[in-house]
């Protein structure tokens, strides 16, 4: 990019760093200072750099590369303890577990609870406005879908849910947004999301990986309020960068609203976040120009308030999307946490399929089982 000095770590001549996620790196800015005859100081040179303080092991476990400084631990001990106590506060109770082990392959409670909270929030905001009466849909993604390793999944047992669990369900500090879209634009949004999957050859009996691991899980949006199927035997319509690469391909099938085929020109309000509404992920129809609500609240606060208001509820997913049936004896697999095996049941269209490598387990999606 213009005005980016990679070698010296400068943006527009200013030293800058991006240290890394979850404390993986330390960001360092070195300044060289010069004093003139009048005693005034100026920055004569600056360099931005990073230093790794954590690495991944063979099984993608986190391994510290430095020892903690006891002086710093002592200095923040009181604040650290108070923070831990705060996030352990209960905000409600769920009557079923919430996990994201299979969030990319079936409708999932970790997304459902977020989309439900967003939908209620937006419906309240538009009451009495020019948008009152327009159906509200809600989009959510599996933020913890394994992208960060085999432990990068949400796993909340039934029972009390605390603030720390809310932070686990919504790990980004996004603020809520709402946009207006037509039925055809909703379809294209879902087509872009469906790029998360590889193209499956229904005539092949060899093992085929379902998930496109180059596609970030946080860009796989589920839209609640409509029902639809995803046909992974069709090639993706969009690339992961949002380019239309297969104009004649359509993976989204049987898209319906309230049981009826969706009208291409029907207007919807869609609850989402500031990242997606402003163009994050390069989704068609989302560039910031159709935003109708810029909420002051973060999506995480919207979620915690929703749980606090309900107090006790069932977070189970409503099953509004599924994969289109595939005839033939296909062998379609994906990777998830080894802990996901505990979430399998006779009703789950998924079976354990061995070791997935890098600390993951492999699972097979069964297309002739109910729920697929």
Number of helices: 6
Percent of residues in helical segments?
A: 10-25%
Strand order of the largest sheet: 15-10-19-13-20
Shape type: globular
Low-confidence stretches: none
Structural class: alpha+beta
What does the largest sheet look like?
5 strands, mixed
Taking all Cα atoms into account, the compactness measure Rg is 23 Å
State the end-to-end CA separation.
44 Å
Strand residue content: 25-35%
Total strands: 25
Mean pLDDT: 93
Descriptive labels:
five-stranded mixed beta sheet, alpha+beta, 372 residues, 25 strands, 19% helix, 6 helices, globular, four-stranded mixed beta sheet
Description:
The protein is of the alpha+beta class and 372 residues long. It has helices at 70-87, 109-126, 163-169, 183-193, 274-277, 299-310, and strands spanning 4-5, 10-11, 14-15, 25-35, 41-52, 54-56, 62-64, 90-94, 98-99, 136-140, 155-156, 159-162, 175-182, 207-209, 222-224, 227-230, 252-257, 260-261, 267-273, 291-298, 312-313, 321-323, 331-336, 350-357, 360-365. It has six helices and 25 strands. It has a five-stranded mixed beta sheet with strand order 15-10-19-13-20. A hairpin with a 2-residue loop joins strand 17 and strand 18 (260-261). Helix 2 packs across helix 6 (299-310). It is globular and about 80 Å long. The two termini are 44 Å apart. The model has no long low-confidence stretch (mean pLDDT 93).
